[in-house]
Amino acid sequence: MTRQCRVSDHAERLIVPGIPTSVPITVAHGDGIGPEIMRAALEILTEAGARLDVEEVEIGEAVYLRGHSSGIEPEAWESLRRTRVFLKAPITTPQGGGFKSLNVTVRKTLGLYANIRPCVAYAPFVPTRHPGMDVVVVRENEEDLYGGIEHRQTDEVSQCLKLISRPGSERICRYAFEYARRHGRSRVTCFTKDNIMKLTDGLFHQVFDQVAGDYPDITSEHWIVDIGAAKMTDTPENFDVVVMPNLYGDILSDIGAQIAGSVGMAGSANIGDGVAMFEAIHGSAPRRAGRDVANPSGLLLGAVMMLVHIGQGDVATTVHNAWLAALEAGAATYDIAGPGRAPLGTRDFAKAVMAHLGQCPERLPAVDYPVIARQELPAPAPVARAKKALDGVDVFLHAPNARPDDLAVALLSAAGQGWLRLQMITNRGVKVWPDGFPETFCTDHWRARFTAPYPGAAAHSHILQLLHRLYRAGFDFIKTEGLYRFDDQPGYSLGQGQ
Ligand code: NAD
């Protein structure tokens, strides 16, 4: 049996000085199961007394097919700028080239740098192998491999640039610690792969350690992402708040949500300084669309985070507790019903939640959100400008069917008596000259490293001279990277990867 919540607590907090009674939000119904779960979520919010002034916009497949490559029209941007709060149902990205991810576009355009994805088990009411799981994944949302900076460089090789910034890392790490502090959590774990990506993931890890120093009340730890991910999926109860760069966070939050119970159960908040977007973590599940079977819980829990964000923690508490009470009473859609239980459709599930408004769960922990929980974070510390000097250049070449020693002879000859001298050649990061191994598999994509006779002694003019010599010798250089040192420390990897 469920019990009545002390609703009066919430009622007392309904009017908060300084907070408008009705908050404008932008709502998009999306594609596939989107309209069904959005309808269900909005019905529950309205019934619970959410004070919302809804502006509807269209996004997704139809907008893409009308020729908007990001799936969103100018009027929708205007609405988002006006309301600064976006409740978004999942959309379908059309197959084929030329379509950009709407989510990535919205996150990056509006600076939604923090993606918060709680992954919680609701055992025994939702089947899971990890009954004690309560992990919040805090994912960096703008950087890493999601910059969309990709190039096909040769017949055989394409590249994607991974960009990690110090301010970006600082903001997300600080967000994770602030989140932990405000939500009564005691541990923040960072996942990176800095044993391999020493400069990019290394920077993220270094900034994490620095930020952790400001939060002595919170335990901090770092795991290499592969073993960390294995541990998190095996014993998630040992993790609390987990912060990581974009790609790892994307993957691990889906895994986290699924092993907690279902991807259909997880909500997600995308937070920026000005605007915030709330959604379910799952997609538009087109195969389930129009059948009244989808689980609206992920979107509903995203909406709960939205209510907290806009200062309606009272309604968020009411909705979340009603949802927990409904789960305890046996309400379940097909994805969480487990064997021997008749699943409810989307609409009936929503009705079950509404029937429990004002009630608290008996066995699952009840929630109690603060009325105002918006996190105002300090701006990232200004980055001190280092003394920067140039050691040389990596020149990337498209050279089909080349052999390392022959390539070296040709490059040495082309570079001649220039200031920059050939130091090494690698293929896919493995050194093949000098002292290469005949067993190393080589593609048509080569990196030739040229350096000045002593550190810091190169200049852009030397690079231009070198490129001109290579051009005259017929080399197809596809890209260059300057080899800079910052305060006398090399800002580039020295040899081959591991
Ligand atoms: P998906 O998350 O849409 O669905 C995968 C499977 O998970 C479904 O077949 C279904 O079995 C289950 N599932 C997902 N949500 C559920 C729910 N609420 N209730 C019950 N079961 C649920 O992933 P997909 O099939 O890979 O992607 C479908 C489309 O969604 C693609 O076009 C993709 O680009 C898009 N997508 C959109 C978003 C977004 O808008 N935020 C996110 C991911 C994928």
From TrEMBL:
SMART domains: Iso_dh. GO terms for biological process: glyoxylate cycle; isocitrate metabolic process; tricarboxylic acid cycle. Keywords: Glyoxylate bypass, Magnesium, Manganese, Metal-binding, NADP, Oxidoreductase, Tricarboxylic acid cycle. Its EC number is 1.1.1.42. The keyword Oxidoreductase applies. Residues 24-353 form the Isopropylmalate dehydrogenase-like domain. It catalyses: D-threo-isocitrate + NADP(+) = 2-oxoglutarate + CO2 + NADPH. InterPro entries: IsoCit/isopropylmalate_DH_CS, Isocitrate_DH_bac-typ, Isocitrate_DH_TT1725_C, Isocitrate_DH_TT1725_C_sf, IsoPropMal-DH-like_dom. Pfam families: Iso_dh, Isocitrate_DH_C_bact. One of its GO terms (molecular function) is isocitrate dehydrogenase (NAD+) activity. Its cofactor is Mn(2+); Mg(2+). Homodimer. Belongs to the isocitrate and isopropylmalate dehydrogenases family. Catalyzes the oxidative decarboxylation of isocitrate to 2-oxoglutarate and carbon dioxide with the concomitant reduction of NADP(+). NCBIfam families: ICDH_alpha, PRK09222.1. This is Isocitrate dehydrogenase [NADP]. It comes from Mycobacterium spongiae. The lineage of its organism: Bacteria, Bacillati, Actinomycetota, Actinomycetes, Mycobacteriales.
